[in-house]
Amino acid sequence: xxxxxxxxxxxxxxxxxxxxxxxxxxxxxxxxxxxxxxxxxxxxxxxxxxxxxxxxxxxxxxxxxxxxxxxxxxxxxxxxxxxxxxxxxxxxxxxxxxxxxxxxxxxxxxxxxxxxxxxxxxxxxxxxxxxxxxxxxxxxxxxxxxxxxxxxxxxxxxxxxxxxxxxxxxxxxxxxxxxxxxxxxxxxxxxxxxxxxxxxxxxxxxxxxxxxxxxxxxxxxxxxxxxxxxxxxxxxxxxxxxxxxxxxxxxxxxxxxxxxxxxxxxxxxxxxxxxxxxxxxxxxx
Amino acid sequence: xxxxxxxxxxxxxxxxxxxxxxxxxxxxxxxxxxxxxxxxxxxxxxxxxxxxxxxxxxxxxxxxxxxxxxxxxxxxxxxxxxxxxxxxxxxxxxxxxxxxxxxxxxxxxxxxxxxxxxxxxxxxxxxxxxxxxxxxxxxxxxxxxxxxxxxxxxxxxxxxxxxxxxxxxxxxxxxxxxxxxxxxxxxxxxxxxxxxxxxxxxxxxxxxxxxxxxxxxxxxxxxxxxxxxxxxxxxxxxxxxxxxxxxxxxxxxxxxxxxxxx
Lengths: 285, 262
What we know:
The structure holds 2 protein chains of 2 kinds. By secondary structure, chain A is of the alpha/beta class. Chain A is built from 9 helices and 7 strands, in the order βαβαβαβαβαβαβααα. Chain A has a 7-stranded parallel beta sheet. The N and C termini of chain A lie far apart (42 Å). By secondary structure, chain B is of the alpha/beta class. Chain B has a 5-stranded parallel beta sheet. A 3-stranded parallel beta sheet of chain B has the order 1-2-3. In chain B, α6 links the parallel β5 and β6. In chain B, α6 runs parallel beside α7 and α7 runs parallel beside α9. The interface between A and B is large, with 40 and 40 residues.
């Protein structure tokens, strides 16, 4: 089998498309191919038809402090790299400011600094369990400035594993119930763990919005997400695998999701969640 | 011709699968423009004796034989496996499925090597499954673990007749096996692309460049995974690889020495 012929039209169609869960790398990320990976994201984004990549940099990605427990210095360096990228790619890149809630003063200052420079959301990495009180001041600031919080989640996590704190849908729902004015994006239902636990865990917490990203492409996952939460609660995204992102768009089409639902997932829900005017090339009717 | 070498029918013990039926599979193949599929019977991986499952598989696929080829399950530690292998050949199976982790067979099991040779001499590939699900979501009774790279290397080294189709492997495992084999042994192993990452990490592109596209075959792992994924991965290859040609699975069964001699 050979790939389909290259076409001028985007593989996912011409309608707006917002990737609500993207990452970029930088020179301090500890990998020699960091620029090639960034270029590959843009290359695939062009081919798929991604209008905006809403992205974060996760500190040094483990090079000088752990990916999920980044030091304040690495947090700042990563956010600076992300700000520079946003400045270079104004037409197609938007920014989550990454923070580590174990350093409250630094986290709050970093949010203010980066939002003033253009960031439109906050990224949390499970450096602390999602329902920990240390997240409360961050959630309060997020609500005040209308910034959605993208929280890393391991679906239905029931015990300790190395490298990150426990944080699953039930944990995030507890935080979201304490902060009903804030919006939370539950990261990557396809990113590992049992997503079938996540849907009932958040269904009664309407300010939690799962994103579809991740390498997991289990049949039944998308159908269950739409059936239980509705297309109005879901965001499209890729995270580390853009091929699965494209496959999920095609699968949503194949399972018969109507045009309204598809537009919600592709971009309209994101346009509603993020601060007004974040995506000028997309328009909410 | 596009052949999905990694399709299954039947239920999965650890989660509900939407309609894992052969007539649905044919509709999916039509929708995805896939010509044929090699099809196994999913419950057989978890049965002690796969024989009854093979009978179910052959009956279910018989009306759809033009599109769906049976891939029976044969375990080499079960009495009269040689007869089961003969039955598979008689049924026109292009391959047999084996599940050594689920059967508790280690990476250097002599029976597995004997079966791999016997299947190859009859013109059938041995189809291996690295995993059905991501490690992080498995049921607490699902303790078999992933197929190891060592097990694949051991089978690839068993003899000239061996043809392996390894499904659901990722980049690291593929590289560990490939570069741990001689050039001749490497020619005995084909990999399906159902679990290989695309951009931005571009694992599939890197493997095409380093190992060669001709070592890969098209596979989806339907009904466990979205059929759309491998084609999306191919559609997103960098421009210089867009004309790369993978192996033609429909020709694999004719490439064994025994069949060539015939």
